[in-house]
Amino acid sequence: MTSRLRLYTFAAPSRFYSLAGWLVPMFWVLAIGLSAVGLYIGLLVAPSDATQGDSYRIIFIHVPAAWMSMLLYLVMAFWAAIGWAFNARMASIMARAIAPTGAMFTFLALWTGALWGKPTWGTWWVWDARLTSELILLFLYLGYIALVEAIDDPRRADQAGALLALVGAINVPVIYFSVSWWNTLHQGASVSVTSSPKMASIMLTAMLIMSLACWAYAFAVVFTRARAMVLERERHTAWVAELANGGKVVAA
Amino acid sequence: MRDLFLAVLQRDLRLAARRRVEALLPLVFFMVAISLFPLGVGPEMQTLRQIAPGVVWVCALLATMLSVNQLYAADFADGSLEQLLLAPQPAVVVALAKSVAHWLVNGGPLIVAAPLVGLLFDLSVPALGSLVITLALGTPVLSLLGGLGAALTLGLRSGGMLLFLIVLPLAVPVLIFGAGAVAVVEAGQSPTGHYSLLGALLIATALGAPLATAAALRISTE
Residues of B numbered 163-192 whose beta carbons fall under 8 angstroms of chain A's beta carbons: which are they? Predict the structure, then answer.
């Protein structure tokens, strides 16, 4: 049989396991490399801000974390929906693997935001639209994780989680547009696909590099977690038994 | 479809009427929980007037979440839920009827009791009126969202807490605009913006939640 690559080739857990196995080290290299470059430019090369001084530099973690938190939720909802629609357990495993990392980035965004808010706004927290909706996003992630962990039957857990993730996906556009829909303390969008950026280009470069670093990190961590989940779920199969006994994975 | 809707609605109302004390427990919880706040926060009337909308709304949310836990549990346990889902009509009808019954049994008393507890907090008459309106708009949303949560967590061990965790993020907008409207009336400004948003949330939830609840029922009973 000629091994042609199809859209659903890696829907087979064993094939995903092998693919992820050799991708993860590459993602780690990318993540560490890009964050080293990004942090070097952001912390050492970029000048201090005219109004905020050096406290603005937390933007190089805060904004990538916030972007990742929203992106990962949509990706999680997407894979959960694919798993539900096509009865593809690998897609549901991917959604479950994404959730803890998404929750972590959301928490990081909130925490770095608070650290930034104290010197600049004078307060750790304010109940404006963006912060509140980001906090709701954290609760949505936690709710998803709690629900899929609470249901013993894996198929029912996957489907219930998919429904919850899809219902909660409405929150992500709310977070994104909250700064233009409401009068908020959080600043509006400085970066847009349709207009020129409102920040110095070297700061923007560092921020984008850090975003790619966070993305590579997310891939590395999510794929590692997904591999562990695959082993757990497929523990009754021959290929996992072979692996446990020290043999190589044989993708069918 | 209207027949099934009315049949399920009447069944739930009749069952609630046969156990009136049980049906009124959420109301008692609502009033007791609200009364705890002056005891905890102190009797300073200015403070109480400020926290009143939030306190009433949070307690309404908690009372709804506690009571909605059992919405499908009894029917699931004795198999009648599966029979209902075997009907030729879509499960959306069952979901909607259950949520409406829950609102009539639980939300209705809350709306009636709210002005009384508002008096405990020395709210002005316009604010009391606003409280009733926001609860009338908001408690149906809470019942609909609660129905979704109940369907998702059907038969699970950790049911009650998990249901609250799931429904809470979805119920936050209603809480914000509901309590916000009363606070705005207390401050003497116009609450029509808040009412419009509450109305929009009601419409959107009434259109979306029964569909999601029906899907959740199918998932949970498979």
Answer: 165-166, 168-170, 172, 176
Q: Which of B82, B89, B78 is nearest to B3 (CA)?
A: B89
- Rounded to whole angstroms, the Cα distance separating B139 from B113 reads 13
Predicted structure pTM score: 0.92
Three-state SS for B188?
A: coil
B116-130 per-position pLDDT tens digit: 988 888 889 999 999
Helix (H) or strand (E) holding B60: helix B45-68
A102-132 pLDDT, tens per residue?
999 999 999 999 998 888 888 888 888 888 8
Identify the DSSP state of B86: T
- Interface check A146 vs B, CB under 8 A: yes
Q: Chain A residues with CB inside 8 Å of B174's CB?
A: none
Residue A143 and residue B156: Cβ atoms within 8 Å? no
State which amino acid sits at residue A163: L
Q: DSSP per residue over chain A, as a string?
A: ------TTGGGSHHHHHHHHHHHHHHHHHHHHHHHHHHHIIIIIISPPBTTTBTGGGGHHHHHHHHHHHHHHHHHHHHHHHHHHHHT-HHHHHHHHHHHHHHHHHHHHHHHHHHHHHHHHHS-S----HHHHHHHHHHHHHHHHHHHHHH-SSHHHHHHHHHHHHHHHTTHHHHHHHHHHHS--SS---S--SSS--SS-HHHHHHHHHHHHHHHHHHHHHHHHHHHHHHHHHTTTSHHHHHHHTTPPP---
B196: CB partners within 8 A, 6+ apart: none
- Cβ atoms within 10 Å of B152's Cβ, excluding its own: 31
Residue type, B65: M
B25 vs A: CB within 8 A: no
CA gap A22, B214 in Å, rounded: 42
What number is the ipTM of this complex? 0.92
Q: What is the 3-state secondary structure (H, E, C) of A125-182?
A: CCCCHHHHHHHHHHHHHHHHHHHHHHCCCHHHHHHHHHHHHHHHCCHHHHHHHHHHHC
Contact between residue B221 and residue B82 where contact means Cβ atoms under 8 Å apart: yes
B222 DSSP assignment: -
